[in-house]
Amino acid sequence: MESPGGAVQGGVEMVDVDEAADRPGAGPAPDRGGRPVASQGGSGRSPRPVKVLKAGTGAAVVLCMATALVHVLLVFLHVAPPNPLSQQYSRQVNAWVLPLFEQNWRLFAPDPESVNRQISARTMHTAPDGSVELSDWFELTGVDNSAVRHQVFPSHTAQNMLRRAWSSYLETHGGDDRPRSQRALMIQQYLTNIAADRIAGHRGGAFESVQLRVTTVPIAAPAAPAAAGGPGSATVAPTPADTRYLPWWKVDSHGN
Predict the structure, then answer these.
(1) DSSP 179
(2) Residue 223 binned pLDDT confidence (cut-offs 50, 70, 90)
(3) Element (DSSP H or E) covering residue 63
(4) pTM (2 d.p.)
(5) H helical segments located in 124-161
């Protein structure tokens, strides 16, 4: 005996599975083991933490790219020849570039070194009995030169830190070594800290004051070639070296 939607076999009604699944309110069809199968539908939305992570990552990438572009633009205005844009925003450019990103050259017009400088330092220590002890001169430039010589990839610290600190000192101080601005005072402290840290790291000892000595030797120009069949070019007398002694500067006590 047949009935709508199924057949009766041995007194048991057989119902088509697809028809039962299409009924209103019916849940997911069970698998062969009788366990319900999870629905494949749904809204398809990602969990909130994943969305927050993606949004944060995107914002960080945009911020890094914007900072990099602004940095490149400001450094370009700093090294480019003077123009209306760099002059109008000179205060903002200098505030960003100086002193960490300062450049020692100008775009399309590099300024190579014309002198060799030998920077030395010595320390002063006051003993408990009141006696003053002076150390021998310590060659700061010599340490940098030895760290650069025969090195395939010398560090930026060995190549430029001391040299750029002294160049900035010359730009901000007069002949009397008196700082006339906050930047000049900062450069002076920066140069003092470099000398004190390097002396403490290489030689040690207790000291409270540091003095620098800078010997400047001009680089001689190449001699002009002698004319064909004529006498050799006259020998140019070498320019004498100039030695400058800086004042004693107080530093944080080292070695005590």
Answers:
(1) B
(2) low
(3) helix 48-79
(4) 0.55
(5) 140-148, 156
